[in-house]
């Protein structure tokens, strides 16, 4: 008789360092990035110094919503395929928002049709 030994259990898979790193800096959604890009330059505020972010929060890519450690790394990112693809995506039509999702799910304002004349 073959088969697995009944006393052996599979250990739980642990999160890798890469997975934990992904959630360290929360990214904005596509709709928020799109809204930031469409703001006029006068409304954009300068980046504040933040010790918790890479490069003190001064080297930022708005399209990708990422911070970089120095200018050289940021400029290298601007040449990358991922950034160019993301910039092209953000220059296209507006991405879906939470309001669109709510309306599609039937959770928005009710549409009862045109009002009929009362007699």
From TrEMBL:
MF terms in GO: nucleic acid binding; ribonucleoprotein complex binding; zinc ion binding
GO biological process, one term: ribosome biogenesis
Keywords, in A-Z order: Cytoplasm, Metal-binding, Nucleus, Ribosome biogenesis, Zinc, Zinc-finger
Places the protein is found: Cytoplasm; Nucleus
Top-rank lineage group of the source organism: Eukaryota
GO cellular component, one term: cytoplasm
InterPro entries xrefs: Matrin/U1-like-C_Znf_C2H2, Znf_C2H2_jaz, Znf_C2H2_sf, Znf_C2H2_type
SMART domains xrefs: ZnF_U1
Domain C2H2-type span(s) in chain numbering: 61-83
Family membership noted in the UniProt record: Belongs to the ZNF593/BUD20 C2H2-type zinc-finger protein family.
Protein's name in the database: C2H2-type domain-containing protein
Source organism (scientific name): Lotus japonicus
């Amino acid at each position: 008789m073959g088969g697995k030994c009944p006393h052996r259990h599979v250990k739980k898979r642990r999160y890798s360092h890469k997975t934990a790193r992904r959630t360290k800096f929360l990214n904005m959604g596509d709709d928020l990035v799109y809204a930031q890009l469409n703001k006029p330059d006068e409304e954009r505020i300068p980046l504040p110094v933040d010790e918790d972010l890479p490069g003190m929060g001064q080297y930022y890519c708005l399209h990708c919503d990422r911070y970089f450690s120095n200018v050289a790394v940021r400029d290298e990112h601007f040449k990358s395929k991922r950034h160019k693809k993301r910039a092209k995506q953000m220059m296209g039509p507006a991405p879906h928002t939470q309001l669109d999702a709510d309306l599609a799910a039937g959770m928005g304002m009710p549409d009862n049709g045109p009002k009929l004349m009362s007699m």
